[in-house]
Amino acid sequence: MRLEIHDGARAAEIPLAGSGIPWRARLSLHAAGHMGRETEERRENRTRFFRSVGVESGRVFGVTQVHGRDVLEVDGRTPDDCASVQADGLVSDGLDAVLSVTVADCLPIMLFAPGKDGRAIVHSGWKGTGIVARAVGELSGRYGIAPGAVDAVIGPGIGSCCYEVDRERYERFTAEFGPGGSLARDGTWRLDLRAANVMLLESIGIRSVTVVDNCTCCEHEFGSYRRDGRDRFHNMIVLFGAF
Ligand SMILES: [Zn+2]
């Protein structure tokens, strides 16, 4: 699936397949600015974006992302409390909570099941690949949602077109996830994070996986760490919930 984005757009809808779900997923784009929490300017970008989508800031839950594989249940906590927890995924079965992750090449992945309130979002880069399986386990363990009932949507991230890595990282990734999630081609080593996650999700036996094919590094409408570098990149935010 491709997201069609017009010039100057500040946000994009990530379509969530599946009848009977109240959820939507909305992604901020490069033009909306950096969506970190570190500076006043970035916090203002967030507030402006939340307002544009009609979501009160007090409903938005995020964590301190560390490229790990931990998943936090947010119910019973406040957004401020969650913001200081180091994790890379969130689960909830409360209708009011809007789950969020920030991304700039890493994949945002949404998990949900028709007729169920339990849902999850994860931030999955190369180091954290595998977190999606943890999140499926949380949905099952906490809310009784069998993997076979779960639909996954993998949002935009860096494609293998742009994700050249060094040999060591390639070998480490291939050793853990097999050859399908990495490529050695023309003397280069590349990772395919989407393919690795699709394989993981299929091996768990979830119901469906939908992949957004846009490459955040190729397409300038998106925020990209790889393209823009540490000092200039914009973190995008994905909001996932009923709003
Ligand atoms: Zn690319």
Write a short abstract of this structure:
The chain is of the alpha+beta class.
Please, could you describe this protein's structure?
With 243 residues, the chain is an alpha+beta fold. It has a single domain (11-159, 209-241), classed as CNF1/YfiH-like putative cysteine hydrolases, CATH 3.60.140.10. It contains six helices and 14 strands. The strands form three sheets. It has a six-stranded mixed beta sheet, covered by helices on one side. It has a five-stranded mixed beta sheet with strand order 1-2-14-6-3. It starts with 10 loop residues before the first strand and ends with a strand. It binds zinc ion. The site of zinc ion has 6 residues, from loops. Zinc ion (ZN) is lined by residues 159, 161-162, 215, 217-218.
Task: Fill in the keyword field for this structure.
243 residues; CNF1/YfiH-like putative cysteine hydrolases; five-stranded mixed sheet; 24% helix
SSE inventory with pairings:
Layout: E1 11-14, E2 24-28, H1 40-53, E3 60-61, E4 71-73, H2 79-83, E5 89-92, E6 98-103, E7 107-112, E8 119-124, H3 131-143, E9 151-154, E10 164-165, H4 167-177, E11 182-185, E12 188-191, H5 193-204, E13 208-211, H6 225-228, E14 236-241
Parallel strand pairs: 3-6, 4-5, 9-13
Antiparallel strand pairs: 1-2, 2-14, 5-8, 6-14, 7-8, 7-9, 10-12, 11-12
Bound molecules: zinc ion.
Zinc ion binds next to loops.
